């Protein structure tokens, strides 16, 4: 009987530790740039083989990262979510997130500003309040586009927000 109680205590303790680790991982694994997908067009036609460069920088520790992708035969591109494990912002919720985000399109010797904004939290898809889906028209000049339902937030670039690709 005593062995049975000891085994139950050990199993319960182990399960509590495992569940606590899951919580800690989610609390400290912070989203710096949500997944992005889109299509690059030039005067309405898909741009094949354009290179897209994504850059993010976290203000509080001045860390910076970058990745790249290339458009396919339909002009489609995709970047995965960028997360990083950080202890300090997870422990100190009063630290104001400040993540600079940029996407550039490199095509035929041109560098086009597709996306520029600042992410002010670490939640997935908080940039627009929904998944980031874009139509980027490289013939356009970059403009500021207000983010719906986000007071004083905008994105600068040649991309427009869409619900479906």
The top level CATH class name: Mainly Beta
Shape: elongated
CATH architecture: Sandwich
Q: Helix amount, in percent?
A: 10-25%
- How many E strands? 13
User: What is the average of the pLDDT values?
Assistant: 84
Oligomer: single chain
CATH fold title: Immunoglobulin-like
The total count of helices amounts to: 2
Describe the structure.
By secondary structure, the protein is α+β, with helices and mostly antiparallel strands. It has a single domain (28-161), classed as Immunoglobulin-like. It has helices at 2-28, 88-91; strands at residues 29-33, 36-42, 45-46, 51-58, 63-70, 76-79, 82-85, 99-107, 110-119, 132-137, 143-146, 154-157, 159-161. Strands 2, 3, 6, 10 and 13 form a 5-stranded mixed β-sheet that branches. Residues 13-26 have low confidence and may be disordered.
Question: Which key terms come to mind for this protein?
Answer:
165 residues, alpha+beta, Immunoglobulin-like, 2 helices, elongated
Note the topology.
Blueprint: H1 2-28, E1 29-33, E2 36-42, E3 45-46, E4 51-58, E5 63-70, E6 76-79, E7 82-85, H2 88-91, E8 99-107, E9 110-119, E10 132-137, E11 143-146, E12 154-157, E13 159-161
